[in-house]
């Protein structure tokens, strides 16, 4: 049998709930994504709570709440203690996302599910990987290799490839095949015939009919129309994910058109977010990287966008039309909710949604058709205590401190009595007059009390009371005291922890205003009131989610052609639609499990480890194919002296084999190649390529179906046997490697 693989959804199947899946590979348990929603519904985490202690490793795919929002809570409350793996942007931007979530909730409620310390603790030991970096696990995971690859949905977003004994398990959710301003498209199509593909059906029923240029034009025209009539524009956005694409679109358009309308990016961590992003250019699109290499132009040096971290700065901005990008996208908390309530009753204003709101949120309600005319909104605000409330709070805190001090002193007294029991070999301990002690405390302050008492408490083995003495016996050599260099190395987590208390810089440290907000311990309370909001403003939704549509998903899965397929994260209708399509066209092994339903997707292949003998390898001729080298080998299986299977040379001449062409031809690339050779070439109907006057070239699947059928594809050349035919065939052969 092949590598044992079981998949158990913990959240996020047959609905749009957060993503969290348990994948077991030969008994090693991966938790892939650990998401939560903006409602922070603890019932969603009940399946995770039952398996958290058995998790061996956590893989994070994207830096938003839906993919990593439950990580601090799971590590603090559910017993999750496994190492976490992510790319650098997912780690850094995910940390800021959780800061923003906490601060947004703390300003409007007594939020206690996790704290800033819990967030720091969860993220400080994340193991950061680069794209395509193969990381070999050790211990229980010996033999397993993990690697993140480009997903194309968010900065640092990853498709995870898990390999064991030559078999691949691919986890690919929320990917985008289209190249965007700040991101390259996914590399999912580079994987062929993995043992298992775990992917989502989120957009299986959605087909994108609008080209990117047309969509951007409609987006910008809609915003401009409302600004020109004196209206304001609100874009509810996430903290550090899809908002980056929107910022670039607006920045570039404002530069081209010379608009004077201000743009504000308002989150609790906006400054830190952009500081981080400016240092992540190597994770972005090729165009951004090349622009920086040639002209040192950083795309995220935003000249037309003002970064704000509190609502007061927005309120004090000059009056007039403005564009505000504010978190949260769900409108459940954050600055966006407050701004919506203020702007909703003005028909000149626009609320522009760029993604589908999470189920059960205010954003989802406003996106319904037809949109509501009135909505009931509970508005909460944290205000400092004052007057009698502040006096009562301080008295209560003082009372609690006195009680705590009394309990501590009683515990200390009991410990002292226990350690100073009757000892016939020791002298009577010194008696201290507590009245004198109190007098000393009253005259010199409370700091002297502990010094006086603690300094004269003898140990049980002492003959006479004395201050404690510690003999520091350091080792010395000819050059002085011997030191341990490791004692002076600054650890990454220490730097990250210290960064919160320093000014912001390019390393992404939090600016002073954000840090002071986090460290604000002034006594306060939350006041709430219900409002009926009249929705007179325009409500528009446009697709800037950065996900592949249904047609692209089907084509991508067909190209990857996995042996077994597991579908997750979509409403029931979309899941069943994609499941039936894949069963009919791609694979007979398609699964769509329910929550906590385990599906066994162990490969039917048998894998053996063999050793390549030196005699065999000395006669092998390799040919370079991309970053790899390939060769055809004729051999027989034998055993070495250590009784290990080995591939040995054939005892006689090997029988001839059919020629094998290795490579992947893209018709569009071949068209450019032929044009460079002076061949007149153009696309004909059905995806065929007309080469010259007589020859036509097309791709066909194994069953003769044109286009993206699963399995190996064939290249068909049609035309009379003439000079052009043989010339085109030679050019075609040159694109492959013959074995």
UniProtKB/TrEMBL annotation:
Domain of life assignment: Eukaryota
Major localization class: nucleus
Localization annotation: Nucleus
A single Gene Ontology CC term: mRNA cleavage and polyadenylation specificity factor complex
A GO molecular-function annotation: RNA binding
Keyword tags: Hydrolase, mRNA processing, Nucleus, RNA-binding
InterPro entries to which the protein is assigned, alphabetical: Beta_Casp, CPSF2, Cpsf2_C, CPSF2_MBL, Metallo-B-lactamas, RMMBL
Record keyword Calcium present: no
Residues covered by the Metallo-beta-lactamase domain: 17-226
Segments forming domain Beta-Casp: 243-366
Keyword Transit peptide: no
Biological process per Gene Ontology, one example term: mRNA 3'-end processing by stem-loop binding and cleavage
Pfam (any one): Beta-Casp
PANTHER family, A to Z: CLEAVAGE AND POLYADENYLATION SPECIFICITY FACTOR SUBUNIT 2
Family indicated by similarity: Belongs to the metallo-beta-lactamase superfamily. RNA-metabolizing metallo-beta-lactamase-like family. CPSF2/YSH1 subfamily.
Record-given protein name: Cleavage and polyadenylation specificity factor subunit 2
């Amino acid at each position: 049998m092949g590598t044992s693989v079981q998949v158990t959804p913990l959240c996020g199947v047959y609905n749009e709930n957060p993503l969290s899946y348990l994948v077991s590979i030969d008994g090693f348990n991966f938790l892939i994504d650990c998401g939560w929603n903006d409602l922070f519904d603890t019932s969603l985490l009940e399946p995770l709570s039952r398996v958290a202690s058995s998790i061996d490793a956590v893989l994070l795919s994207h830096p938003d709440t839906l993919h990593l929002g439950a990580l601090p809570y799971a590590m603090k409350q559910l017993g999750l203690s496994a190492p976490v793996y992510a790319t650098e942007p997912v780690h850094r931007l995910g940390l800021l996302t959780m800061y923003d979530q906490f601060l947004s909730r703390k300003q409007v409620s007594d939020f206690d599910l996790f704290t800033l310390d819990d967030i720091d603790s969860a993220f400080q030991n994340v193991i950061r990987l680069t794209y395509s970096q193969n990381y070999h696990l050790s211990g229980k995971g010996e033999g397993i290799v993990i690697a993140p690859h480009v997903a194309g949905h968010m900065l640092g977003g990853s498709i995870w490839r898990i390999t064991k004994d030559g078999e691949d398990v691919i986890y690919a959710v929320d990917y985008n095949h289209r190249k965007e301003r700040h991101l390259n498209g996914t590399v999912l199509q580079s994987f062929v015939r993995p043992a298992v593909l775990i992917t989502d059906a989120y957009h299986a029923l959605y087909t994108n009919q609008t080209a990117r240029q047309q969509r951007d034009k409609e987006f910008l025209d809609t915003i401009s129309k409302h600004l020109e009539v004196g209206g304001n524009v609100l874009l509810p956005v996430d903290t550090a994910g899809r908002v980056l694409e929107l910022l670039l679109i607006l920045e570039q358009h404002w530069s081209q058109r010379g608009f004077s309308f201000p743009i504000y990016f308002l989150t609790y961590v906006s400054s830190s977010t952009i500081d981080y992003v400016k240092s992540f250019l190597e994770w972005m699109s090729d165009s951004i990287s090349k622009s920086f290499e040639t002209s040192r132009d950083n795309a995220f040096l935003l000249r037309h966008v003002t970064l704000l971290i509190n609502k007061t700065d927005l309120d004090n901005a000059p009056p007039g039309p403005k564009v505000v990008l504010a978190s949260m996208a769900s409108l459940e908390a954050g600055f966006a909710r407050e701004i919506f309530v203020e702007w909703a009753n003005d028909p000149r204003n626009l609320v522009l949604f760029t993604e589908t709101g999470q189920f059960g949120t205010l954003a989802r309600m406003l996106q319904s058709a037809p949109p509501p005319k009135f909505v009931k909104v509970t508005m909460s605000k944290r205000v400092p205590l004052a007057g009698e409330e502040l006096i009562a709070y301080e008295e209560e805190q003082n009372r609690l401190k006195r009680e705590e001090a009394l309990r501590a002193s009683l515990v200390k007294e009991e410990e002292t009595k226990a350690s100073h029991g009757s000892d016939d070999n020791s002298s009577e301990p010194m008696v201290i007059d507590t009245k004198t002690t109190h007098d000393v405390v009253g005259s010199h302050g409370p700091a002297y009390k502990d010094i006086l008492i603690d300094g004269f408490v003898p140990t049980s083995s002492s003959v006479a009371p004395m201050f404690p003495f510690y003999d520091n016996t350091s080792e010395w050599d000819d050059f002085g005291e011997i030191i341990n260099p490791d004692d002076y190395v600054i650890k990454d987590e220490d730097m990250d922890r210290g960064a919160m208390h320093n000014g912001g810089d390019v390393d992404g440290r939090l600016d002073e205003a954000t840090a002071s907000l986090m460290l604000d311990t002034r006594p306060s309370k939350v006041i709430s009131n219900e409002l009926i909001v009249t929705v007179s403003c325009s409500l528009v939704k446009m697709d800037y989610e950065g996900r592949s549509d249904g047609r692209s998903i089907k084509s991508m899965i067909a190209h990857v052609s996995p042996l077994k397929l597991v579908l997750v994260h979509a409403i029931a209708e979309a899941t069943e639609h994609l499941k039936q399509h894949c069963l009919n066209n791609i694979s007979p092994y398609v699964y769509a499990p329910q929550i906590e339903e385990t599906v066994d997707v162990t490969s039917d292949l048998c894998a053996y480890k063999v050793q390549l003998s030196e005699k065999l390898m000395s006669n092998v001729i390799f040919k370079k194919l991309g970053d790899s080298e390939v060769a055809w080998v004729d051999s027989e299986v034998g055993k070495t002296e250590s009784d290990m299977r080995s591939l040995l040379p054939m005892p006689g001449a090997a029988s001839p084999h059919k020629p094998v062409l290795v490579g992947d031809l893209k018709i569009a690339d071949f068209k450019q190649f032929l044009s460079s050779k002076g061949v007149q070439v153009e696309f004909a109907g059905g995806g065929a390529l007309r080469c010259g006057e007589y020859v036509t070239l097309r791709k066909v699947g194994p069953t003769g179906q044109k286009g993206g059928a699963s399995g190996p594809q064939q290249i068909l050349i049609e035309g009379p046997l003439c000079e052009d035919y043989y010339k085109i065939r030679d050019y075609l052969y040159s694109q492959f490697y013959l074995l």
